[in-house]
Amino acid sequence: MLTRTRWPYPRILAHRGAGVLAPENTLVALRLAATFGFAGVEVDARLAADDTPVLMHDADVDRTTDGTGEVRGLDAGTLRKLDAGVWFGNEFAGEHVPTLDAAAALCRGQGQWMNVEIKAEPGDEAEAGRHIASEVARLWSGTSPPPLLSSFSEAVLQAAAHGAPELPRGLLFDDLPDDWIDRARALRCASVHCRHDTLTAERIRAAHEAGLGVLAYTVNDTERALALFGAGVDALVTDELREIRADFLALYSPAPR
User: Fold this and answer.
1) With a threshold of 0.90, does the pTM exceed it?
2) Nearest-CA neighbor of 232 among 209, 248, 256, 196?
3) pLDDT of the chain along its 257 residues, tens only?
4) What is the rounded CA–CA span in Å between residue 107 and residue 253?
5) Could you give the 3-state DSSP secondary structure of residue 60?
6) Strand ranges (DSSP E) for 97-246?
7) DSSP state letter for 70
């Protein structure tokens, strides 16, 4: 049984870097998370047209850059020319869309662990899962603990298992189907990543009994964070870096289960 004390990763992760205080999935967001003391970050990665993994949540660049178009239709060089900061604030003008390579170098230098959520559109899951997983394995070679790969797509995780079988994987859920634990175990996942309002102490206990860690997303309320840790959740992702701080568990004692 995987207990809270056996979770080998940071227990509070900065969502998309510091994605509410700086432009999400950018190097400046990762640096800001480090200044807040976060030893772990969650980011989104997907493939550009030339198969370079880049940090980007959406399938297109319209929301978070000054450009337009599908990420899969633009190569890394073209993406780098886009401004990924000015949409958030003038003080971030000139921020680039980072490659996974650049993010890895920064996070390794800052001593930050990473949860890489692999994004892919229908028909591209196998390529994205295999290629991004193999790149993560290469970029973090020799690190302990290694990054955790996650995805809502079971096809992505199946491909990731072939691309880098040594890396841990987590299956993401929005709503929880009846067979959520069976599906994660069939993929040989290390963890399940669940929308926080779907989690109960009983569900967390069931996942632990199946040998799975439990990560809750996206938790932005301190009372809810305390309740989840009290119920046994292993980790959570948050936007509220000032309230649910990196030292949150040292400041508050969760109520016993």
Assistant:
1) yes
2) 256
3) 333 457 999 999 999 999 999 999 999 999 999 999 999 999 999 999 999 999 999 999 999 999 999 999 999 999 999 999 999 999 999 999 999 999 999 999 999 999 999 999 999 999 999 999 999 999 999 999 999 999 999 999 999 999 999 999 999 999 999 999 999 999 999 999 999 999 999 999 999 999 999 999 999 999 999 999 999 999 999 999 999 999 999 988 655 55
4) 29
5) strand
6) 113-118, 148-151, 169-173, 191-195, 213-217, 235-238
7) B
3 state SS of 184: helix
How does DSSP classify residue 119? Answer: -
Structural contact between residues 171 and 183, judged by C-beta atoms closer than 8 angstroms: yes
Q: Point out the residues that are catalytic.
A: 15, 57
Q: Which residue has the tokens 């899951």?
A: 125
In Å, what is the CA distance from 174 to each residue of 86, 153, 156, 194, 201? 31, 11, 16, 6, 17
Query: In Å, how far from its chain's centre is CA 6?
Result: 20
Q: Which amino acid is at 77?
A: G
**DSSP conformation class of 239:** S
Rg of the chain's alpha carbons, rounded to an integer? 17
